[in-house]
Amino acid sequence: MANKKLIRINRGSGMHWVGDGFPVNTLFSYHHQADEISPFLLLDYAVPTDFSPSKHRRGVGFHPHRGFETVTIVYQGALEHKDSAGNSGKIGPGDVQWMTAGRGILHEEMHSQAFTEKGGSMEMVQLWVNLPAKDKMTKPGYQEITKSNIPVVILPNKAGELRVIAGSYGKAEGPAKTFTPVSLLDINLEVGKSLTVPLTEGHNTMILLRRGQIKIAGADNSETINAKELALFSQEGNQVLINSLDNSSLLLLSGEPLNEPVVGYGPFVMNTQAEINQALADFRARKF
Length: 288
Prior knowledge:
Elements: E1 6-10, E2 15-18, E3 22-29, H1 30-37, E4 40-51, E5 59-65, E6 68-76, E7 79-83, E8 88-91, E9 96-100, E10 105-111, H2 113-118, E11 120-130, E12 141-145, E13 152-155, E14 160-166, E15 168-169, E16 172-173, E17 182-189, E18 194-198, E19 204-211, E20 213-216, E21 225-226, E22 229-233, E23 239-244, E24 248-255, E25 263-265, E26 268-270, H3 273-284
Antiparallel strand pairs: 1-22, 2-3, 3-4, 4-11, 5-10, 6-9, 6-11, 7-8, 7-10, 9-12, 13-14, 14-17, 15-16, 17-24, 18-23, 19-22, 19-24, 20-21, 20-23, 25-26
């Protein structure tokens, strides 16, 4: 077994608002490092933020997507989803929604009515997962993955626990259905404990540290990873060894690179500029 090498720590682009409901830090984007993060495209981390009670529902109103999937993980708060394919749902702490935009969809993500009225802390991650060229124009879809349906693995030596959202860990299989091999693991590690995560040689791997502090085996002491940072690893190697320096919560994502051109414009991600032009034309013609 060989450890994947830590090659970069991303601290993000700084906070900005998505709609009026989500203050996020973009920790990676295909605009700058498409080959290193494929099959993923973008990760926005909405750090814990307190919202006062309100009569006005905050969030992002109806907007289009084509050519990829959006994955929303809620850690605090509650969201309500509605889309043009007729899907709707509500997700709270520990729940996940996995939306396949495919050939085109309109959707909105808003603070739930109950959360809006009561107020509280909101924390979430939104991840964009690219679709391979052959599936770009697939039929839109929606997976509502509740906390109760996500398997939990209790780690040995009282090290903590791990949730398998997509892919597998040991005998535990994640409930998310994916178009290409993707692993998404939600991990809580106790202070002073270690965890070795088996991974696939050649896959791109990243760790978002939500809270705490970790050290990756083989990295220099100066490369300790702190809360709200993202670690990017080499494709070479088939495992990552994580040492927890504090009680830590992290999201590990790994996937098979698509090795296809990536051309994006706002909410559309395709393989050529001509396909982007067509997406814009179709949206304007209300074909989504």
